[in-house]
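USER: Fancy drafting a protein?

ASSISTANT:
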Amino acid sequence: MSLKETKECLLELLGDAENNVIALSGRWGTGKTHLWGEVMKESRDETVNGALYVSLFGLSGIDQVKRKLIESVMPGVEAHPKIWEGTRQAVSSGLKVLEGFHKGFAALSDLNLLLAPVMLRDKVIVFDDIERKHEKLGVDEILGFIDEYTQRHSARFILILNSDQLAKRELWDTLREKVIDQELKLLTTPGEAFSIAVGLLPTRYSESIKRASVACGLTNIRIIRKVIKAANRILADRELEDALLDRVVPSIVLFAAIHYKGLEDGPDFQFALSIGSSSDWGDIVDNKNEELTEDKKRRAKWRLLMNELGIHGCDEFEALVVEFLESGLFDASKLAPIIDRYVSEKKNIEAREQAKLFLFKELWDHRLGDAQLLELASALIPIAGLLDPYVCSELETVLAVIPGGGAIGQAIVDGWIAAFRLQDHEQISDENPFNLPLNKAIVAEFTAVDSRAQARTTVLDACMHIIENNAWGTAQEMAMKGATAGDFELAIRTMEIEKLRRFMRRMIEMRLNRQMYDVHFGTATECFIEACRAIANDPTSSRLAGLIKHLFARTALGSELALPQTATGTASGQDGAALNNH
């Protein structure tokens, strides 16, 4: 039942005196304690209003439970004097030394255990965090306490339990079998969970965060609060228009939910960052051609989630969000230029939102016919130059399978290329850190400018980040995994001397400990060796070749600089030299 339905039902059950023990179960963080607080406020029964609450977390004996309950009496005496009038009289007549206890129970010591039956008579008692009790507090003790106080002292109990954190299911099964009269299972909806979380931690981005949070199915209120906190810190209370919020907020919510483990069987950072990439599209193609494994079904489910969120590809903004979540350190100076650029590119963002809307309708709106889809797509041709190349490529791919859509898709690509050629590009300095798929014609344009510039920069930046911080994040792992031997060779030949000194030392260290690093960086150290081998055996680079040989000679890697052997056992370079001598 939803939170609203559960609250109504619990109030109704409390109105029936026959229900001595009521259980409220549900997943951790979904608002059970919050719900009980609401019930206490709304109930017309003063014993419910003044209920005694105790968390069993860490309690190792029933005497500790009694002490905690009596300690919780003090606030209730002043707030609900009527329900404590009889208790005051009973204790006063039985133990005159405590005649002033109704003003405060500070004088109580171990005598409070003797007073427990009197003080807890006719009261509503709440046991929370039952699953986190100490091992020494046995289930028999809990059962005996509940049975004694319900049968002999007319007490009533509310048992609150996180059902997903039970180490031993038999505890709950025993309670259900022996003492529980009624059980309610709370199934808080994502909308209800967000409403509670935002009430505890306000944000000016409430509507945008709520849409993304509901799409992610987040029901853990603690995690939603962390998501809101992350969004507030990243966006720094900036006033952003709807189109820009639609661009940045879903990514913040998704990646924060991944980091704080708020998604049940959700994607990891690497999958989310690579959405729409060539590897992702390769998976989609494989899914069409091969039998779906459980892993492929799971990844397909993740793609649907990201599509619902409107995340079709990631750029440096998502990389920065991941860096912040992984490190806990936030550099506003890095984010400000990205947000400022997004603001200055309002038309671009609006155009991308229009393209995103088309992609959404093409996938989900089964009521639209081909003619209607083509009409929507035709409106994208005039604004193609405002789209990014990856969206254009995706549009062309999607339209290619719609009858009559091929020409529109090609017109969108042509429009983007025409706008690109009007700009002055010395090199491709942006983008594709996540290897997103590109239309072949767009790839040709990039190649003409300098298609490899970004790859070189990315490899060098990733390596220097690892060297300078002695640590790495998801972005660095992806860059290293995608690096080729050519990327390493160009980096070695062109980097500054001081960087080269540090770079070579760390990369040699990684190669010597490849078992540790290959898990994170794939074939990066092997590509590094290939690059060094090529330089070491290049007669036109004698100085650099000599440096590399000198560095390797002092390690166990010297033999790896040798060229591959032929069938006769001689290096290919030596064979060539022998032929020339003849």
